[in-house]
Design brief:
Radius of gyration: 20 Å
CATH architecture: 3-Layer(aba) Sandwich
CATH superfamily: NAD(P)-binding Rossmann-like Domain
Structural class: alpha/beta
Amino acid sequence: MELKKSPMENLAITKLFGGIYKGKKILITGHTGFKGSWLALWLTKMGADVVGLSLKPQDELNHSDLLKLGIKSYLQDISNLSKVKEILQEINPDIIFHLAAQALVRYSYQEPVETFTTNIIGTINILEAARSLPQLKAIVIVTSDKCYNNKEWYWGYRENEPMGGKDPYSASKGCAELVTACYRESFYNTENAVLIASARAGNVIGGGDWALDRIISDIVKTTSKSESVYIRYPMATRPWQYVLEPLSGYLSIGWKLLEGKKEFAEAWNFGPNSENNVSVLDLVKEAHKVWDKINFDFDKGYHPHEAGFLMLDSSKAKKMLGWQPVWGFTRTVEKTINWYRKFYEKNEVTSVEILKQYITDAKQQGIEWSRT
C-alpha cells in the first residue's frame, strides 16, 4: 500500500530557499524563545540538523516545549565566553542564527546591566567563539528595529541610518549592530572568511509567545482568565508582523551567505508593508473581532518611555532578496489570535498548520524563497 505524503512533503518544504538547509548543521541561539522556537520548527521541517543554545524557558507555558521537536539543546548563558567556545567547538555548525537576547523594553529599565551584558557581550562572545570553527560558513545576527536612533518621523528607517536608543534595550541592540559591523570588518574580512549579516524586524507577533509586557501575551493571558487587558500606550503605532515574516527574511539571508555571496553580508530590514503600521488600540480591536471574549481598558499609571512610532524601510530586501511580506494586518491578527484561542479552548498547538498555510500563501504570491 502506498503511503500518503504529509502536507509538508506535498509542499516540497525541503526545497525552499533553494534547498540549501537540508542536511546542514545549524545552531540557533535563543531556540527556546518565541522567534527561536518557530525558526527551529521551520528548519527542522526542511531537513536541517538543528542544535540549540539558550537559557531554560522562563515561562511555564512556552512554545519550545509545546512543539516537542526533540533537538539537541545546550542550556547555557551566552555571557560566559569559555563555555560558549566549548559548546560551539562541539557543535561545529555550518551556519549560526543568533537570536539569544534580553528582548523586553520595560525589563531593561529594571535590569540594565543584564540587558547590556546579554545583548552586547553575548553577541561578542558568539562572534569571538565562531572565529575558530572549521566548518562555519555564515552567521546571521538578529537585532531589532529599535536599534535605530528613533526620531519618530513618519517614514521608514533604512539600513544606513544611525544607531541609537533611549532605553537600555534599544541602546543594547544598536550596540550589537555596531559590534557585528566591527567584527565583520576587523576579523572576518579575508578571502573565504565566514560571511556575517545582521537583521532587523518590526513588532513580531504570533502564536506561542507568553513573555511579560507584550501586548498579545497580555491580551491572551487576561482573556483566558476572563479578565480585561489594560493598555499602556493605546495610540502608540507599531509595525506588526507575523513571526514567520522576519524568519523568512533571516532564512533568505542565510541562503545567500551559505552560497558564498559576499554582497549579502550586510545589515537588512524585514518590516511589514505600511498597512500593518497600526496603533495598539486598533490591534486590540482587531483581536476582539477574532475572539469576542477579549476586553480591554486603559492603564493611566506612569510607565517608562517607549517609542511612539517606528517604521522600517525594507526596500533593500525586496529588491535584492526578492523578499516580501506574505500576510497583511487582518490576516496577521487572525492567525495570531486563533492560535491562542485553539490552544486555550481545545488544547491544540497549530504551529505546523500555520507554517503550512504561510508557505502555501507565499507560493501563490510567487515569493522568491518559496519557489521549488
